């Protein structure tokens, strides 16, 4: 299997010049086989400084372009992505290890958010507010905020960029992207496709979209620079603590998408056939490497034996294999460190009394590729590794008797990203969705916690960071609010009845 040559061919088709992925110091490996795909050049601190300066200049120009015109650039980007969906989706599979349908699905997400943002470019609405003063008008409007720094993770190497980029661009903001060091090739391809869209658009200021491939220091330079008022960072809670503190110290704004220890509750009235399918995808899709992956399953005691017995069979028979050949549903973990973290969590679960089914390494493409059978772990209590997020296909299963206890169990973790309930009882569903129910940013009914659509705002609470990306009113995070009071009369009445007569 010559993956490197296939990858180089895809890069060439998408317009990435050879000097961008050869002769550099960052070796990029595919999780499919562990082989080196490319050696990518990285940026220097001086190049980061120049990029930020250029983006700041671009902001002065781009913010004056009418928003619907800015939307036209994003429309063209969506078209370019449609034309290159197979190539970019294939590259995602090679570099991130996703099965083909998931690689293509990630590019479809990019297309969808572009469509959303094009419509949004004519809907950046403010408010008209009733003034307490006669002959006064009170209004609220939104202006571009400035350069947006995007720091993305390996598991969604291009979709997360698009969530931020499409909105930022229609909102009038330039973007600077620091991708994961594990997935720079998809970033190179995406930047090349953006440049094709920009060429079709014409009159795009230099530095409107910049790609910076580098190590953690590159990200730090973005985070610490006052000329980058907004930082959108996706990654671990540990990383988010650092980013949030440093950005807040300079009074910048953070959009943080961090850890997710997501749970689903299965009630006595659940449709178990539907639940089985949803749990399987939620826990094993993308080899458990989604921030919304299902990690805890809380099952009512009356249906526990039936559901868990069926799940054990699914886990024992699920197809684990090469994501770019055949029909395997579970591909590789991203690297050796991820596999070792999975094994350490399983050992900790055993030490805490857990019963582990699966989790062993599967030999696919040799010793440098890290495939693992998904693990189902029966736990008597929510303790030890159950309270942590391990970015691997581990599903902890717990039993409950009262729904209020199940909700409390679900909420009793540090993260608050996604959650779901399986039930056909309206009372159970409404309790779960109420203020006394799930404390997560996403709460689903009769589906798993993963697979969010771009129409809704994506993000979570507590140690998930509180940020929101993609749909709904997430666009406000990329703009600054301005309140305007207009006096169209000839007198000067003051608010709250204050008197200040000077003659």
UniProtKB/TrEMBL annotation:
Pfam families: Aldedh. Coiled coil: none annotated. Homotetramer. The lineage of its organism: Bacteria, Pseudomonadati, Pseudomonadota, Alphaproteobacteria, Acetobacterales. It comes from the Bacteria. It comes from Komagataeibacter saccharivorans. The active site is at residue 257. InterPro entries: Ald_DH/histidinol_DH, Ald_DH_C, Ald_DH_CS_GLU, Ald_DH_N, Aldehyde_DH_dom, ALDH7A1-like. The keyword RNA-binding does not apply. Keywords: NAD, Oxidoreductase. GO terms for molecular function: aldehyde dehydrogenase (NAD+) activity. This is aldehyde dehydrogenase (NAD(+)). CDD domains: ALDH_F7_AASADH. Belongs to the aldehyde dehydrogenase family. PANTHER family: ALPHA-AMINOADIPIC SEMIALDEHYDE DEHYDROGENASE. Its EC number is 1.2.1.3.
